[in-house]
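We emphasize that the prediction below concerns an isolated chain of 290 residues; any contacts that depend on oligomerization or on bound cofactors are therefore not represented. The input was used exactly as deposited, without trimming of termini.
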Amino acid sequence: PTYFERELVFAFKLEKPPWEDRTWCRTLALLAGSKLEATCRAELWQAAPAAATLKELSSEGLVAAFRCAANIHQDPPGGVGVTDGFVETLCQRLASQAQWLDGWQATHVARSAAALGLSPGRSYDYLRATLLRCSRALNPPSAAASGAAERAAPRGGRARNWGTLTRKADRWGTALEANSEDTENSVISRDALAEVERLACALKTFDAHDAEVRALLAQWLLRPIPAASFVRLSADLASVGLAAAYTEGSQAAAAMLLQIRSRARSAEVVAVVGDEASKALADAYSAKKK
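Result of the prediction step, given as a C-alpha cell string:
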C-alpha cells in the first residue's frame, strides 16, 4: 500500500489537468477517501495549490478546496498546514460565489469553514441566505410529502442518488430501511439528513446562535430520523441555545421539549449512547426555569 500511495502522489504532481476543479476534486478524494501516510498527505497538499489557482474555481472546485483545507487543518501532516493567505483567498472566493451554491455545497462549505476556525462574519454570513433558500436541511419535508416527487426535483439541479429512509410501525422509527418503497407517513432523504447534520455541526463550531436557522433545524428532531442522528442533532442544537429558547413557557415550546425528552430517554437512544448520556441529553432540554 505504501508503494502505491507514493506512486499516486508522484503521478498527481506530473499530471496537469485542463480544469483546476478536477485537481481539487482529486485531492479531496485522496485526502478524505484514503488512509495515506503523513508524508504522502503532506506532499499531496503541497502539490495541489501549485496545480490549481483558486481564482478560477467553479462552485464544485471551491467546495473541494474548502474541504481539503479543513482536512489538512484538522490533521496537519508533518508540520505542513494551511496558510493564512490560502484561507483568505478562499474567503474572497466564497464572498463572490456564495449566492451560486446549492444546499449540498453550502452546508459542506459551512462545516469546512467552521473546522478551519473562521469567524461567522468571514464565512457563515455569506452562506446564510443561500442556506435558507436552497438547503433541504432548512426545508424539512412534510409528513405527507411524496419521496418520489422530491427525488424528481432535487434542489440546485444536482443529479444525485436519493436513497430514502422510511419509518416502520414503531413510534420513533427505530429501524429505518434504506431504499424502501415510499409511504405517506414519512420519507426522509439521506442527502437532506446529511445536510442537517453538517449545518448543525457548523453552528455548534461557530457558536452561532442563529434563531431562525436553529428553529428550522429543530423541526428535524420531530421526524423519524435514526437514533444516532437524533442524538448528534439535539446535542448540537442544545449547544447553540435551542434548549434555552424552548424554556420560555409557550405551549408549542412545551410540546417540543416533551417530545425531545421522551425520545432522548427512549430505549433506542439509550442503546446508542448509554443511559448516562441519554439522561444528560434529556436534562439539557428540561423545562425547569432558572
